[in-house]
Input
Amino acid sequence: MCGIVGLFCKSPELEPRLGEHLAAMLVQMDDRGPDSAGVAIYRDPAPDGLVKLTLYSHDPELDWRARGLDVQSVRAGHAVVLVEGDADEAEAAVRREHPDLRVMSAGRVIEIYKEVGRPRAVAAAFAIADFDGTHGLGHTRMATESRVTTEGSHPFSTGRDLCLVHNGSLSNHNRLRERLRREGIEFQTENDTEVAAGYLTWRLREGATLEEALEGCLDDLDGFYTFLVGTADGFAVLRDPIACKPAVLAETDEWVAMASEWRALAVLPGAADAQMWEPEPCVVYAWEKALV
Amino acid sequence: MAVDTVTAAEVVDLAVMPLRELNQRLHDVAGDTPSPQRWQIVNPNGAHAVACGIDAPLEVEILGHVGYYCAGMNKRAFVHVRGNAGTGLAENIMSGIVLVDGNASQSAGATGRGGLVVVQGDAAARCGISMKGVDIVVRGSVGHMSAFMAQRGSLVVCGDAGDALGDSIYETHVYVRGNVASLGADCVEKEVGEHHVAELCSLLERAGLDDVDPVEFRRYGSARRLYNFEIDNAGAY
Output
């Protein structure tokens, strides 16, 4: 199982209500993924010269401001902080100086929030409905390959302003994880999706475009997947060659949306008149701000 | 096959009535109590299993998009979806007609044993998988692995077909007007005889497609090499 949702605002008028619509979509996928849920929201760009990190603490009582971090907001164990300099350096500095914290996302616009529990409760805990933003994606998890933990929840960060959510299961993730570790990619869990995220991180680091990296999945990943990848400017969808994991795309003049099921799209304004179709296997579908 | 008649329809709002109650009411029609023959379902909002398991000559019109398994196991009823349909449309249909104005997701008409499924838009992957006697007419195109292990009935595709059409097919008749990306194991193109054109004419007429010329179709079916295991065919599996 697992449920995926994604919403991309073509019209700026929709941006103040991005979170409200994304939360409604996520809740519709509650019974596809009752174990955990998460979202990546693209919003509120960091000022020039600064990097935005989403950090996570296991300690719900943590005094974030006592850490000497430039904390912008705190939501249910997740804090958005601004750090000077390069994203890689910023992430390394947090790992070095705050080993108890996890870096959930890093970039200019991305924020990732994820937690165990029913999606409806997770959406409420993070007040997802209050977010504005240009686009966002979400996931509801029914765990198969690894434990139900915050770190094992989706989305997974795959690099600067990039993230991945996945419906399916991969069968060659153990061997691929070892191969990627030799390439210097770090992993925090035994989760199969984290390996796919690490694979994309590695390919992008080696100079591949997002489209090339995704097409590489068709050769190098064995298993079932519908992927939704968030980027600073939009999102992309890819299904494995068999395409047994569901996916529906919909588009109006106002928005583009992707979901595992029709009912998650039905909650969007104008859904009744949207163009809706099922994406084909092995085809990368991508939307970017610059292109619409 | 028009639904528009002068008799008033029983209107059910799925934003108000629980789905199980609606389906139970549709099932109760098969009993002895007098019931409405025309039904109109509003606000389906992508719900799963809408109008499943009907066994009565009803006309059911659904205004909007439906989720998985709409009109599954249908017997005798005419179910008209005025929107798109999710995975498994009319799965295991026994008889009657299921018509979708928009697109259908994967596995439309899967395992159907009789009746007619019409998709005015595109049907996605595995359309007609393991069909056992249903007739399926798609105005647009079908996705990959359509008619996989299809046993009886006919699949008519007015547009194109995706990869591996008719893989391991038995005796279903497959007609495609557009391009076929590739044929699956043991599926071959076959000659179109006069009785095939007549069959196509009948299917298109029943589907209400009067602007499609049956002469433009090509026919595909089983080469019958996989019926019994032979070691020489191992590479084809």
Observations:
- Chain A touches chain B at residues 28, 243-244, 246, 248, 261-267, 271-272, 276-278, 280-281 (CB under 8 Å).
- The CA atoms of residues 228 and 237 of chain A lie 5 Å apart.
- Chain A has two domains: 3-41+117-291, 45-108.
- The two ends of chain A are 32 Å apart (CA to CA).
